[in-house]
Structures are given as C-alpha cells and as structure tokens.
Amino acid sequence: MDRRKFITRTAQATALLAVLPNIACASTTNGSGIFNEFGIQLWTLRDIIYANPQKTIAEVGKMGFTQIESFEGEKGIFWGMKPAEFKSFLDGEGLKLISSHCNWQIDLARKADEVASVGGKYLMCPWLGPQKSIDDFKSYADKFNKAGEICKKAGIKFAYHNHDYSFKELDGQIPQQVMMDLTDANLVDFEMDMYWVVTAGINPIEYMTKYKNRFQLCHIKDRIKDAKEPFASCTLGEGSIDYAKILKEAKALNMKYFIYEQEKYDDKGVLFDAEQSAAYLKKLKK
Predict the structure, then answer these.
(1) Residue 24's pLDDT is what?
(2) Taken in order 207, 212, 216, 221, is the CA torsion positive or negative?
(3) Residues 215-228: pLDDT tens digits?
(4) 37: helix, coil or strand?
C-alpha cells in the first residue's frame, strides 16, 4: 500500500485550515512522568529503511524506542524476514512489535496469525480516504467488525488509524463517530493520530473521554506553530501541540501504546528527527 499517494491525495483535497483549538498550545517538557515505554512507526523511516531494514531498526532502538509499529511495504510486515526470524532480531535489539498497518482486505487471516506469532497485538487499517457519503463509512464499519472477528481468532485485535478527513462532517454526521458507534468494542479499537485530530480542529482529549477505552494506541507528531496547511509536522517539542498535557490525559484514559511518527522532516534527516523526538519523549517518561 503506497501511503504517500494516499497522503498526497488528502493534501490536495484539504482546504486551508481554520485556527487550531486551544489544545494546540505551546509544547512543554516538564518531566511529569507519563509512560514507561514508547514506540516508532516504521513508516517514519520509509526513505532509508528499505536499503537495510535491520540496521535502520537497530539505529532507532539505540535512541530509546522499545516498541515497533510496522507497515506492509514492498518487503512485507517483517521486512523480508520470516516471522520467527523477525522476532529473534527484535528480541536481540530489545524491541517488541506492537502492531502493523497493512492491506487489511487481502489475506488478513494469515497476517493476523503471523503477527500474533511474534507477540504483536494489532493489525490495522491505515487509510480509507474521504468518501462520497456517510453510508460508505457505515459500510466500512461493518467490514471492520468482520476484520475484527478474523483478528480475534488469531488472538489479536483490529484497529483503524485516522487522518483528518474522518473528523469532518459528511451528510450531517461525523464519520469518525459513525465508525466508532457502529463497530463492536470487543472486536475493533482505534489508533488516534493526535496530529490529524488537532489538524481537523478537534480536541483529542474530548474524543478519548467520550470513547474511553476505544483508543488504545496513538500516533505522536508535532505541528509547526501557526501553520495553516495540513501537512506541517515537525520535531516533537518544537511545535504547537501540548503533548505534556495531552499524553498525561491519554494515559489516565487508558491509552496503552504511544507511537512516534513523522511524515515530514528537514535537511538534517529522519534519524536526527527521530533522535530529537525520542529525547523529548524520554523527558516525559517515568
């Protein structure tokens, strides 16, 4: 699945944004102690990981990341390795696979069994894209429930990862709410991409409170201060989103997995950004 194409389509479809909500205030690093572990979405490393997956993953392991969220690229969820080989490699680096984005509509049962075999907890839909009607999202909610049943048989869970489009009104309803209301909580969870929630003009704490226990994972990336365009991510701690506050609330509302992701980085490169962002998250650790 070429997520870059998907994201480009979103950028083209998204108009300039209104003023961000109050939750997007100056970032702080107060060392309040929020979580013990944090992970990285390997999509962050997409420009360098294909050349040498093991070396690249080992590099981020040295930065303090202890958890991995993979994605189904050209080399598959396990980066050209067999599941057992991939697990052995991660074990040697002190890393754990928590989840993976994937093409969930093809061969999901096999993928679920393999992810479960290495100790993973989730497979998820990374993207649906804007739909023509709210009925389309209702249809996907039904498909999510069926995917959840398949994953449950393997001992893991299915989840959906949001962008901003699912928080925009369509036919008088909010697609995100429709999908959450129509999916079985025993089968389907949600991964909150906090950046895209804020970009949509929504307070993430409100959704985590309303749908307590449905958001078990989150993506963490910062937003350039005063940016109006949708794609304006930056190094954690340098932007406008108050993660010291939001992540503390998320933890209190039973968020389990905190995953750094970056979609855009400067000339210093993705590993520099990852290292700086990991340092920020360490300041928030217990």
Answers:
(1) 41
(2) positive
(3) 999 999 999 999 99
(4) coil
pLDDT band per the 50, 70, 90 thresholds, residue 251: very high
Q: Is residue 95 exposed (0-12), middle (13-18) or buried (19+ Cβ within 10 Å)?
A: buried
Bridge partners, residue 233, by sequence: 223
- Per residue in 163-217, pLDDT tens? 999 999 999 999 999 999 999 999 999 999 999 999 999 999 999 999 999 999 9
